[in-house]
Amino acid sequence: MTQSLPEPLPANADTAPAPAANPVVAASAPAAGDLTVTVGSHFKMIFIVIVGLTVMFWAVHFGLLFTTDPEKPEIKDALETTKIAGFSSLGTILGLLGGAVSGKL
After folding, report:
1. How far apart are CA 59 and CA 35, in angstroms?
2. What is the pLDDT of residue 67?
3. The whole model's pTM is what?
């Protein structure tokens, strides 16, 4: 019981497949020079919340700085905490933007 391989078809214009009338381009392959970034509603919600928290942390920080005595130990601790939270929030915003631009989200 031996099987033989089918004969190869000749490579001429009569047997070559016809090109597709309307080639389909994948949606995930952007055109060269296309700088469009599409984000979903989930990303927008998270981004808005993080921006709101960042604004709140910095508002509290500068509010404490200009309206109270920054030499009190309690106020120093609060200023340090709000400053760290504000910078962490800025880092989070940059991370979210970098992830959105690179297409990982």
Report:
1. 34
2. 94
3. 0.62
